């Protein structure tokens, strides 16, 4: 059965910047579905976000389906955001214990669309999102295989108030008001490198540029789930980003197992329900 996929629009709380305060602030937050970094500032709009990562290997167990996604994007961080432009890859464990990997792009609130690029563990991916007006160009290249895809779209809604580099625990949704965060796949570690963004009217820069605030996001089952689609749930896994290195262009996200909460295995029903959201 085909699966409708969409990246969950979500926002994280962060410290409010005082008018006229110097940028280059750093803060941190927790979330039940995102791990990685976001950059933002009240007076900054972003034009481009980009990064390279190695598709991680998964540790799968039959009877225990789990899910993960890795992406870069613009928007979706602010509490009032209604849009998110993103592109990335997915790595899931099926009910039978088989690994399933794919590539996708999405412009929230529209559903995501599959990219015709084969992705395997160990492949090196390069991703970029560029927004000019209402023109969005999303590109993903599998450096290992040499295959690439470029999509140009003109959505009615865009958000360029932030840039993100994320590993995510997807969600299963029966409807727009009924969502459940799924168990996070054991991906070991996922390293982002050559990461950066470009603010409007400025040069490209790494994550630690003083013109914006850098927020470190840790995925914890008990963390808040600030998302556009309503729902609940806690993934049986956590993910923690390392400090940013490489002159502000690299970091690693590490998976940590967390015991699954008692109750029915919602993840086992995703394939039959046919509605997997991110």
List keywords for this structure.
single chain; eight-stranded mixed β-sheet; 1 helix; globular; disordered N terminus
Task: Write structural notes for this entry.
The chain is an all-beta fold and 278 residues long. It has one helix and 21 strands. The chain has an eight-stranded mixed sheet with strand order 2-17-3-12-5-6-7-8, with no helix packed on it. Strands 4, 9, 10, 11, 15, 16, 19 and 20 form an eight-stranded antiparallel sheet that branches. It has a five-stranded mixed sheet with strand order 1-21-13-14-18. The longest helix has 4 residues, at 270-273. The model is unreliable at 1-25 (pLDDT under 50).
For the largest sheet, list the strands in their spatial order: 2-17-3-12-5-6-7-8
Main sheet properties: 8 strands, mixed
Beta-strand residue fraction:
over 45%
Mean pLDDT: 82
Gyration radius, in Å: 17 Å
- Structural class comes to mainly beta
SSE string, helix = H, strand = E?
EEEEEEEEEEEEEEEEEEEEHE
The helix content is: under 10%
What would the principal axes of the Cα set say about the shape? globular
For the record, give the distance between the C-alpha atoms at the N and C termini, rounded to a whole number. 18 Å
Question: Tally the helices: what do you get?
Answer: 1
Kindly state the number of beta strands.
Answer: 21
């Amino acid at each position: 059965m085909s699966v409708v996929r969409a990246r969950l629009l979500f926002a994280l709380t962060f410290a409010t910047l005082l008018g006229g305060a110097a940028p280059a602030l750093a803060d941190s937050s927790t979330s039940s579905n995102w791990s990685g970094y976001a950059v933002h500032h009240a007076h900054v709009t972003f034009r481009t976000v980009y990064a390279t990562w190695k598709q991680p290997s998964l540790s799968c167990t039959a009877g225990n389906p789990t899910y993960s996604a890795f992406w870069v994007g613009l928007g979706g961080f602010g509490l009032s955001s209604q849009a998110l432009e993103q592109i990335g890859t997915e790595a899931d464990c099926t009910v039978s214990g088989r690994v399933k990997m794919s590539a996708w792009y999405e412009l929230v609130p529209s559903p995501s669309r599959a990219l015709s690029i084969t992705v395997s563990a160990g492949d090196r991916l390069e991703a970029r999102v560029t927004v000019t007006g209402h023109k969005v160009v999303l590109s993903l290249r599998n450096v290992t295989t040499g295959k690439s895809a470029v999509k140009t779209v003109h959505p009615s809604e865009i958000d360029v108030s932030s840039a993100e580099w994320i590993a995510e625990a997807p969600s299963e949704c029966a409807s727009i008001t009924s969502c459940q965060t799924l168990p996070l796949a054991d991906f070991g570690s996922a390293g982002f490198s050559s990461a950066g963004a470009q603010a409007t009217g400025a040069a490209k820069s790494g994550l630690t540029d003083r013109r914006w605030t850098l927020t470190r996001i840790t995925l914890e089952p008990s963390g808040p789930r600030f998302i556009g689609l309503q729902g609940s749930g806690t993934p049986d896994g956590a993910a923690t980003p390392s400090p940013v290195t490489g002159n502000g262009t690299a970091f690693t996200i590490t998976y940590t197992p967390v015991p699954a909460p008692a109750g029915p295995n919602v993840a086992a029903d995703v394939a039959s329900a046919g509605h997997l959201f991110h």
